[in-house]
Amino acid sequence: MTLPTTLWHQHNWPTDTKPQDGYAIKSYGGIGNEHREYGEENRPKHNLSGSCHELSVFFGKQVHRVLIDVWAYQWPGKLERSITEISNWVDTVILTHPHMDHIGDFPRIFTSDTEFAGRVYATPGTRDSADVALTDAAKILAREYENKQFWYTEMLKDIAGALFDIKDRASGKKQVKRQWNGNRMTETWSEPNKKQVILNANSVLSKYWVDISKWAENYKDQMKQFAPEKPAYDLEDVVLSLSKIETQTINNGWNELIPGKLAFRFYNAGHIIGSVSVLFRITEDGKSRNVLFSGDLGSYKWDFHPTGLPIPPHNLPIDTVVIESTYGGKVRPDFALWLKDFQENLKHDLNKYKQIVLSTFAMDRTQIVLNMLIQMKIRGELVDIDILLDSPSGSKHTMNYLKHSRQIDPTISSKHAPIIHKALYDDFVIEEQRKLAEFTENIDPANWHYTILDKNNKTSLLATDRKKIIITASGMAEGGMVISHLEKNLWNPEVAFYFPGYLVPGTLGYALASESQSGWQQKNVKIAGKRYEVKTRIKQFNFLSWHADEEDLITWLLAMKLRKGSTIRIVHGDINGSSLALKHTLERSSKFKGINIIIPELNEVNNFPILSPVTGKNLTTKKPSPNLKK
Fold it and tell me: Is 294 within 8 Å of 276 (Cβ atoms)?
């Protein structure tokens, strides 16, 4: 079964932006966004969060629109984007992998506000991990809404009480003291307290920005601006959205969306379990164009690839590449040196501290850290040290890794490996298989290398005097079990906190680990409105990233056949930082001469013809979004 196309003018696509029998690409997110300040010096003006790209394919008067990933914006600040309006015109959705900045708004497509009736595709690994991530997200949204609703209700009570006090005292009469709701109390107000009561009441009104001159008539209307919005989606929406995903493995070959005209297939992106790059084949009158979306790519530099190698198409001419640039302009040092530094710090601190709390991402980072620690334990480097996993999400993702890692076949990567590596590939495959088997055995809780904390054993295991390493979430310390550990132990000089990954400016993790201009880490932080003095050691190790660096990105590009006059569209980076750095590197290389290299802006449309020759001169427009209803 394939999806029908619809008339392009029904999508409100401006006529002067539509190519004749071609395709257009637009980015709603996952790109350097418009210049804006967020009110704090350490918060960026650009971002790479919230990936969402649209491929619109035109055949005469018909168009088929595909959405690649469905963002969630995770940086400080807010972007005004409406997935409900966009999804009403989309025919197909493809999810490249289950990180929240790629799938976080996916359930909103299936809420009552949308009219989405298309199909959704992802790998089994993405489907299973998305279940965990989106379920957690829905619970967090519900909990945040309850807290905000409680605050809002208490605010209205405070205002109502203040208004009653003013009204009750304004009469000038000595009356029976009453509560804000009018209930009679036994005591009476004395006249000398009248002025103080009114003063206190006015102070309350000022605190909540109530216009005192209008309070008698419409204070509730004034306060509606503070009323919490209901969550964008709930658990029912998550269940429905996940049920709509049709799984397709990397080995399934082409999936025909429009027979003979539009098809796609998956290639391993090597980023996390289930991650893919997506190749589209667009055909008209015997001529084809191949359009490739990288998704997030993994690195070739790790000594082990638990999710497989990033593999680009190697036997098809590519006309347009949409490539991420998270680490554009950056080249990682030798991973072995960074790993050695991490391990030496860990062993040193275990002699000094009673426990070390490792705060990392529940998906992929937790499993890698767990494997590294267990390897150290097996080698005898962590004697009498308990390894505890205190992350319900991390435990669930670990089960998904066990399930899907066992399905990875290194021989599939070896078919393309000579394009990418220079080693002996028979030896490479054998070593990858060995390390994959070791990895799955290490992270399997049935082998008792570590203990998963739950409500039955958590209190007793954390209370023991044994030295311990606690792996918890989240990576940015913006939620998860790490919050309780921080609240309990920030004052404790016998505890150390490790953040083994990148920390976004504006997050609690960044505030804890970053140094001020004077060279000292912050001495106190605020958590849930309460300020904590920091006496524990806090250490960041910025090497555990599953993203490709610039050398990896170039290797990936060189491993495919870029047609002369083709286009490389650089996204998922900072316009004036990582994206620009990658663009300059590519432009300086003779290997990319004749290639059109662009960094689109947010909502910019790039049009590409099919029947006319590929010239590298693509029409670029910044017309309003075609999805917006007028």
Answer: no
